[in-house]
Amino acid sequence: MRRLSEDSARYFLFALVGGVLLVVGAARWIDRSLAFELHASVPENGGWSPESLSIGVGEALRLRLVSDDVLHGFAIGQSDQPELLLEPGKPVETTLLFTRPGKYVYYCTRWCGLDHWRMRGTIDVVGPGKALESEGEPLFLTLGLDIDAPHPAQVVPQQVPSSRQAALLDADLPEGYRSRAYYQSHSPAQAWADLRAESSLAHLDDEQIWDFVAYIWTIHTTPVELEEGERLYQANCAACHGENGSGDGVMAGQLLQSTAVQARHCCMVRYYAGEWAPACPIGDLSSHRSKSGISSVTCGLFNLKWR
């Protein structure tokens, strides 16, 4: 009887220890299978690590986001996921759920260095369902433009162009200039040159032609686009270009130290310097923003200086 009690106690102890180990092991296996620790460093030190993740449709993706150096932001393109701020030494946890397969881009939303725009990674969501729709190639690729090269304009306005003033001129804007196709494929300087060559507008002076250019941009802009463009501009551009596009952002001094960086990043500075880019050349915007979002930013950029 005593021997039976000792055996029972021994079996119970073995079962208890085995059960504890099983529970601990299962918890660790579950944690590894569903959770990732994603580190953010300035691009010069590696950027996002890892820079690519994979998850199945409908599976919960648990992320523990850690900044290893400065303030970063985390957001996902083509997603309603709100922006998360990552302060050094303060990990942030979040859970994501993707209902459609496709490749989603995550990116940093806070200026963290000269190569901030390169700080992005991808989440590959695999499985059944309607795939994430592709919006096609960016406009600058369709037009065959090198956004890293300068595009100097031959002429710039000497005063602030006014679309309201254009409506008062004794002239009509030729119909072809009212199309969105023209607006999307020509720079303001190109539009000015084309209008200047129109015989029906020969009686107007150069600044009045610029008023018509402002009018072309204004008729293709809606209040909704302007509001969205303002929001995106303040979040992604103002650190360099300033709150009103005057090139006096907190990081402008660093950008202007490098001609290559200035040419690559500055859609606003390019315009004010007599240069132009038809779609936002900043890498993080063109890689994850929708075409409508980039269009809104572009509208907002020019309308900062149109009246």
Features:
307 residues, alpha+beta, Immunoglobulin-like, 2 domains, 5-stranded mixed beta sheet, 4-stranded mixed beta sheet, 13 helices, elongated
Word description of this protein:
By secondary structure, the protein is α+β, with helices and mostly antiparallel strands. It folds into two domains: 34-126, Sandwich (Immunoglobulin-like); 139-303, no CATH class. Helix content is 40%, strand content 16%. The chain has 13 helices and nine strands. It has helices at residues 2-34, 139-142, 163-166, 180-185, 188-196, 206-219, 223-236, 238-241, 252-255, 259-265, 267-272, 283-288, 291-303; strands at 35-40, 48-49, 52-56, 60-67, 72-76, 84-86, 92-97, 102-107, 120-126. The strands form two sheets. It has a five-stranded mixed sheet with strand order 3-9-8-5-6. Strands 2-1-4-7 form a four-stranded mixed sheet. Helix 5 (188-196) crosses helix 6 (206-219) and helix 7 (223-236) packs across helix 13 (291-303). The longest helix is centred in the N-terminal third of the chain and has 33 residues, at 2-34. The radius of gyration is 27 Å and the shape is elongated. The chain starts with a helix and ends with a helix. Mean pLDDT is 74; it is low at 23-33 and 257-288.
- Numbering strands along the chain, what is their spatial order in the largest sheet? 3-9-8-5-6
SSE pattern, N- to C-terminal: HEEEEEEEEEHHHHHHHHHHHH
User: Residue share in helices?
Assistant: 40-55%
Q: Give the number of domains.
A: 2
What's the overall geometry?
elongated
Radius of gyration: 27 Å
